[in-house]
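Hello support,

Our group uses your service weekly, and this is the first time we've seen a run hang past the timeout. The protein is aldehyde dehydrogenase (NAD(+)). I'm not sure whether the cause is the sequence or the server load. Input pasted verbatim:
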Amino acid sequence: MSNLKNFYINGQWVAPSAANDFDVINPSNEEVCATISLGSEADTNAAVAAARAAFESWAFTPKAEKMALLRKLLDIYKARSEEMAQAMSMEMGAPIKLSRAQQVGAGSWHLEGFINAFEKFEFDTPYTATEMTLREPIGVCALITPWNWPMNQIVLKVIPAIAAGCTVVLKPSEIAPLSGVLFSEFMDEAGFPAGVYNMVNGDGPGVGSQLSAHPDVDMVSFTGSSRAGKLISKSAADTLKRVSLELGGKGANIIFADARDNAPADGAARCFRNTGQSCNAPTRMFVEASRFAEAVEQVKATAEATKVAPASEDGGHIGPLVSEMQFNKVQDLIQKGIDEGATLLAGGTGRPDGLNRGYYARPTVFTDVTPDMTIYKKEIFGPVMCLMPFDTEEDVIEMTNDTPYGLTNYIQTEDTEKRRRVARRLRSGMVETNGSGFAQGSPFGGYKQSGNGREGGAFGIEEFLEVKAVSGWND
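Update from on-call engineer: The timeout came from a worker crash unrelated to the input. Re-ran successfully.
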């Protein structure tokens, strides 16, 4: 990548207005793997101005022209997928097998889903015989994305926004920016008109805050921590811009007595995937009392069998946490669980044996966890799980909903009516049951402090639209 220190503004790769180098650290070995530039207010303003100038033309560009560009982008993305896999593996520590299959695959899967949804999407629909409802692009959108699933989140924001007719400024995570730069190369190669897509690297207090407060930005779509989401909402309030938030989670995995035999082991493996750095990770496992002893053995064995290794190694292991800051946070929370009296079933503080450099954490499981403990309440964002028994359906529903978050919960039972009944009672935007994944274009988003708005498919396109009522359309 030759554009690491540049920004993509108004269809051109441009140097920052002022030098502000920032080292990108490979979390597998703690070494500098690239150097980018962090933008200043002048760079933010230039990107927003370019998006604003391009909006009128792009908003009224025929759907067929937009579709052709999206299809070309998909072809480029697939052709250069190995570059993307290597970039994400190096920048945020996803093992290369996971990076190729799931990190890269998430981007192409969502891109295909948006193309299918866009093809069928009706922007103008009759309300009555004489009244028309129009769905029109909201305007210039600031898109602020995280480091844990880089392409998943960039595609979930950029593609529906531009399909809707909006113009955008992307700020990728400064911790894992290489994939964002590479994606910008894809957009440039696809030939989107100048100013439709812009990218400025920067941190949250800098470019992130400037975009959130910018008077010429009509909408902010942010994925990240609930703490940052609150700050963005406050910053955006002065200009009353729309804010869409996909934030943290503390998902519960409910395993009833009639669940399939390997449900506890599968739940633990799902929690540890991506080194636990997923907002929808099932980090609290609730097991019906009659199967709790069995679950303890399965989960302990799964944690101890989960290999931790560098991201560059092939295989089904988990990699490092993304940064020194994240490593220290996870270590502190594991220690907090021990100090507050939880029982350590597996793992613990420190690096796994044989790894003395890199931000590696041990897959960790606690039992005897009570609702007043920090590890029960706080999103840890590492390979750490709490395992607890329950007695009745009512009890576990109350336990599951006892959190300020509401992103994804999980249910395991062969009783269809129970599965449906409990799913209705859980206060979360998504409920996955019996390991059945969600369909392409399914709405992704949460309740409560897990955010607002939905991403994916037609739901994602609607996020970037205004609704206009026009009377006398056929008079």
